[in-house]
């Protein structure tokens, strides 16, 4: 029998059992990694935000590598349209909780580690408490408010953040707020993106699409960076942003510098606690929330059934319109300036997109720039229409 190895860190003993020595032997054989690296992984803890496209490969490889404690944050259910990239799940999982299914799969993969579940939507009210219990945070989220929230919380808590993002055929990755040997910390998300762009210009994967293998590539890079951080091997992406294009397999690395004017970690910070990130990432929406009238799907259905003359404008992209539509006129948001004259002023006009965000922006533009007074936004978009009016339509 192979003898177990005892390694002490900070006066705590972390012993590799014969089973662990055998399971992780291919890593332990690596020069510079050795048993000490494996023991550091066993000692380490990682929180993965999201068990989706990025979270799936990151979680699989971190669990397989032997990270001692892994937390998963996700409040969503498995959807059929996610199966082409969320490789943790299978067809029979559709409609069930992602976080618990993910935990079950990871325990099947590696019963020697501890998996913790957080079936909540991460927010300013719970982020600090959840993140504080882990050494490293892996951000697999797909929206700007969560990215800023997680970054700020990691800065306040002095945690290293492994960042990844994907869109269509392109991905990017970096390491933020990492502690350096001289006691300083590397750049954070706000150094790279000081201000969020308008949300209608940053569609999610469900709106803009994504090549299924792309999150597997970027999520694996996130797992790779996390293992390097926990074990101290190699050079991480701290201070660098990796850009990857899957169509021509090109990569670029951009240097990321600390911004003295960073409101959270700069020379004269002005933000000292978590804020309202929905309002921060979409201030126009929150300032003018009452200026755009909305209509519920069921009320639109009654309006259609009454045979009243109305006009339905679908501001999604043509490829989305082809997948599923409710017989509206397709005028993508980015073509609104050119084609607004096609929109009538003498009948109620109902604008819609997938979730209601882009159509809300379209309604604002029509009102403020072109003087329309007859537009309404379909609350919740076509997805809510499917849920509440026509469940036979395909979701995407």
Kindly list the characteristics that best describe this protein.
single chain; 396 residues; alpha/beta; Rossmann fold; Oxidized Rhodanese, domain 1; 8-stranded mixed β-sheet; 17 helices
Number of E-state strands: 15
Task: Give unreliable regions as ranges.
Answer: 1-13
Any idea of the CATH class of the largest domain? Alpha Beta
Coarse shape: globular
Biggest sheet, spatial arrangement of strands? 5-4-3-6-7-8-9-10
Mean pLDDT: 90
Give me the secondary-structure category: alpha/beta
Number of helices, where a helix is a run of at least 4 consecutive DSSP H or I residues = 17
Would you identify the CATH H-level superfamily of the largest domain?
NAD(P)-binding Rossmann-like Domain
CATH structural architecture of the largest domain:
3-Layer(aba) Sandwich
- Count of individual domains: 2
What is the rounded Rg? 24 Å
Q: Distance between the terminal alpha carbons, to the nearest Å?
A: 53 Å
CATH topology of the largest domain, by name, is Rossmann fold
Give a short summary of the structure.
This protein has helices at 18-23, 25-28, 34-43, 55-65, 98-109, 127-131, 144-157, 189-192, 205-208, 214-231, 277-281, 283-287, 297-305, 318-323, 336-339, 357-370, 381-388; strands at residues 5-9, 12-16, 45-49, 69-73, 114-118, 136-139, 160-167, 170-176, 240-245, 250-255, 294-295, 311-314, 329-330, 349-352, 375-378. The protein is of the alpha/beta class and 396 residues long.
Could you explain how this protein is built, in words?
The chain has 396 residues and is an alpha/beta fold. The protein is built from 17 helices and 15 strands. Strand 4, helix 5 and strand 5 form a beta-alpha-beta unit. The protein is globular, with a radius of gyration of 24 Å. The N terminus is likely disordered.
């Amino acid at each position: 029998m192979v003898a177990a190895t005892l390694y002490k860190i900070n006066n705590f003993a972390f012993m590799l059992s014969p089973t662990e020595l055998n399971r992780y032997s291919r890593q332990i054989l690596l020069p510079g990694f050795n048993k000490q690296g494996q023991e550091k992984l066993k000692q380490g803890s990682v929180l993965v935000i999201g068990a989706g496209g990025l979270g799936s490969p990151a979680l699989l490889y971190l669990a397989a590598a032997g990270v001692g404690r892994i937390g998963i944050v996700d409040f969503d259910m498995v959807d059929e349209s996610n199966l082409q990239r969320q490789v943790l799940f299978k067809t029979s999982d559709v409609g069930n909780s992602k976080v618990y299914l993910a935990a079950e799969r990871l325990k099947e993969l590696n019963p020697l580690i501890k998996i913790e579940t957080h079936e909540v939507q991460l927010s300013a009210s719970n982020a600090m408490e959840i993140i504080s219990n882990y050494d490293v945070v892996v951000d697999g989220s797909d929206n700007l408010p969560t990215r800023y929230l997680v970054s700020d919380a990691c800065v306040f808590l002095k945690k290293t953040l492994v960042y990844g993002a994907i869109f269509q055929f392109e991905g990017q990755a970096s390491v933020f707020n990492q502690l350096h040997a001289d006691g300083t910390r590397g750049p954070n998300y706000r150094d790279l993106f000081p201000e969020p762009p308008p949300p209608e210009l940053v569609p999610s994967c469900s709106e803009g699409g994504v090549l299924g293998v792309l999150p597997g590539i970027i999520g694996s890079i996130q797992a790779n960076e996390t293992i390097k951080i926990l074990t101290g091997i190699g050079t991480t992406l701290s201070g660098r942003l990796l850009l990857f294009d899957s169509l021509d397999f090109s990569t670029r690395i951009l240097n990321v510098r600390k911004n003295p004017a960073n409101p959270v970690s700069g020379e004269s910070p002005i933000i000292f606690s978590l804020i309202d990130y929905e309002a921060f990432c979409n201030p126009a929406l929150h300032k003018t929330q009452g200026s755009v009238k909305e209509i519920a799907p069921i009320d639109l259905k009654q309006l259609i059934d009454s045979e009243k003359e109305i006009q339905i404008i679908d501001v999604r992209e043509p490829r989305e319109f082809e997948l599923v539509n409710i017989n509206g006129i397709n005028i993508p948001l980015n073509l609104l300036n050119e084609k607004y004259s096609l929109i009538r002023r003498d009948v109620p006009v109902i604008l819609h997109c997938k979730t209601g965000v882009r159509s809300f922006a379209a309604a604002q533009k029509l009102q403020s720039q072109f003087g329309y007074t007859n537009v309404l936004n379909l609350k919740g978009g076509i997805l809510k229409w499917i849920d509440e009016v026509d469940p036979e339509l395909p979701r995407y």
